[in-house]
Every structure is written in C-alpha cells, then in structure tokens.
C-alpha cells in the first residue's frame, strides 16, 4: 500500500517537473523569437533609404527626393536633382 502511494507521489513530481521544464523551454523559445523580431526591427532602419535630410524636387517629374540619395547633376554651376536615372535621361543632362 505504501509503495503505491510512493509511486503516485513520484508520478506527481515527475509530471510537475516535466511541466516546469516544458514551461521554461517554451518561455525561452518565446524570448528567442521576441529577440529575433526585435533584432529585425532594430536592423530595419539601416536598410531603408534615409528619410531625413534636405528634400529636393526632381527637375523632371517634381518628386521630392532626399538630396543625399538623389542624382545630382551640375548644370551651368547650378546643382539640379533627379529622382532616378530615367528622369535624368529625359531631362537630357
Ligand atoms: Zn523624377
């Protein structure tokens, strides 16, 4: 009779222990995923085209582009900006 009780207790402890381990693993995995997601969102801005800085209108189509990333062409000493090579080609400069 005592042995049955002992087995029952061991089973309960074993189940509790397994649940605890699974809980820790699941939590750890969730943390890992969260870190991955946070890391991705942290890395994102560096891959994006800079959105701050001086804005210049494209001479051909009028689209405002960041001066740092725009195509700059010097025409008669004046710097003109283009949003793309296509616009630059159309403008003929
Ligand atoms: Zn343009």
Report on this structure.
- A hairpin with a 2-residue loop joins strand 3 and strand 4 (78-82).
- The longest helix has 46 residues, at 2-47.
- Helix content is 57%, strand content 17%.
- With 93 residues, it is α+β, with helices and mostly antiparallel strands.
- The protein starts with a helix and ends with a helix.
- It folds into two domains: 1-48; 55-91, no CATH class.
- The protein has helices at residues 2-47, 85-91; strands at residues 55-57, 64-66, 71-75, 78-82.
- Strands 1-2 form a two-stranded antiparallel sheet. A two-stranded antiparallel ribbon has the order 3-4.
- Zinc ion binds at residues 58, 60-61, 63, 82-84, 87.
Question: Can you summarize this structure?
Answer:
The protein has two helices and four strands, in the order αββββα.
Key traits:
93 residues, alpha+beta, 2 domains, binds zinc ion
Distance between the termini: 98 Å
Q: Overall pLDDT, averaged?
A: 84
Secondary structure: number of strands: 4
Instruction: Provide a count of the helices.
Output: 2
Bound compounds: zinc ion
SSE blueprint:
Elements lengths: L1 H46 L7 E3 L6 E3 L4 E5 L2 E5 L2 H7 L2
Antiparallel strand pairs: 1-2, 3-4
């Amino acid at each position: 009779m005592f042995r049955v009780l002992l087995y029952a207790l061991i089973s309960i402890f074993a189940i509790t222990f397994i649940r605890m381990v699974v809980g820790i693993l699941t939590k750890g995995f969730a943390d890992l995923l969260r870190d991955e997601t946070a890391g991705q969102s942290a890395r994102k801005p560096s891959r994006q085209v800079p959105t701050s800085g001086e804005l210049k209108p494209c001479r051909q189509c009028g689209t405002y582009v960041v001066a740092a990333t725009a195509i700059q062409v010097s025409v008669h000493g004046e710097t003109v900006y283009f949003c793309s090579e296509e616009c630059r080609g159309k403008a003929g400069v």
